[in-house]
């Protein structure tokens, strides 16, 4: 049995340490304060009995739970991140514990009238009768991804305390700076030495993800010609009008607010303009690789069309790939998804398999040679004051880790049938 109070205490001890990351910093970790939790985690991993506990100069933590069987079993890993999002403050987190949730409004902050309500956040109703951990309305919670860390540490502790559960060698990895897109950047895949791993960084119970967007960023620069408005006839070219034409020429319904599932989009997120020059910043997203390439091509062709029309190099487009859909790296080793699925089913709940409309550290790791699907960590409403996590979900995720460890030490032939 995984004890609820133990989980709450562990989770609370993590979220009350501020680990907000900073996209404007060039160091790793991006903020000095991430060391506070990192150093504490190192001590805790040693204390529960893991071996080879290491932390490198960039605060990447790794540890080993040795195999307790005499036959060969693939080495697997579990990964989460200890930084929290710079979107909202993570300083002075004061977690509130709501036991036996009654399905009604939760007053997060009486003074500031901040309410967490199932009228708006319907997902809350799934957790009636459970124990919720919320914020006090003034900070984020940091369940993303300190719930993941709680789950991995607790699962390793459970396996150590219950040696009758047979498992192979398991590697644990905790990273800084995931929230600013750099969690995988300095992750030493070779040193980690696992055949595959799972990030514990999804949301609701059952989530299991191995598809994410292909992603690129585009900067469209439009040059105009500035002339005194009183003498401008036939001479002035206003870059902002050309920019408007450019924006309107892209498919108007292929934007984040009009798409879902596996539908891709162009997302204009910043306009910076004057007569002389306008810069448009886009992100391009698509699960399908060909469609992704076609989107990039479309943005360039559109620029060419306008340049031809104006007989000058008015528009230039710079596109930079950001990350790719991990699906192509997972499909050849689908047993790693099947094992996670089977683990959830054996624990009595349904895996929710859906494409991620974003990226994960796991997608980068998959392309670095460590196939890495993503599993739920249990939290909701990430990156803001309404973030909450049911303790029961943290326990379920912990049990999933234990079960995956157990299943991986069994005969994998069934999971592998159908693979090349
Ligand atoms: Zn996360």
Automatic annotation (TrEMBL):
Gene3D superfamilies: 3.30.70.360, Zn peptidases. One of its GO terms (molecular function) is tripeptide aminopeptidase activity. The keyword Heme does not apply. Belongs to the peptidase M20B family. Its main location: cytoplasm. SUPFAM superfamilies: Bacterial exopeptidase dimerisation domain, Zn-dependent exopeptidases. Residues 210-308 form the Peptidase M20 dimerisation domain. NCBIfam families: peptidase-T, PRK05469.1, PRK13381.1. It catalyses: Release of the N-terminal residue from a tripeptide. Its cofactor is Zn(2+). GO terms for cellular component: cytosol. The active site is at 83, 178 (proton acceptor). Keywords: Aminopeptidase, Cytoplasm, Hydrolase, Metal-binding, Metalloprotease, Protease, Zinc. The keyword Isomerase does not apply. Cleaves the N-terminal amino acid of tripeptides. Its EC number is 3.4.11.4. It is found in: Cytoplasm. Binds 2 Zn(2+) ions per subunit. The gene is pepT. One of its GO terms (biological process) is proteolysis. This is Peptidase T. Zn(2+) 1 binds at residues 81, 144, 201.
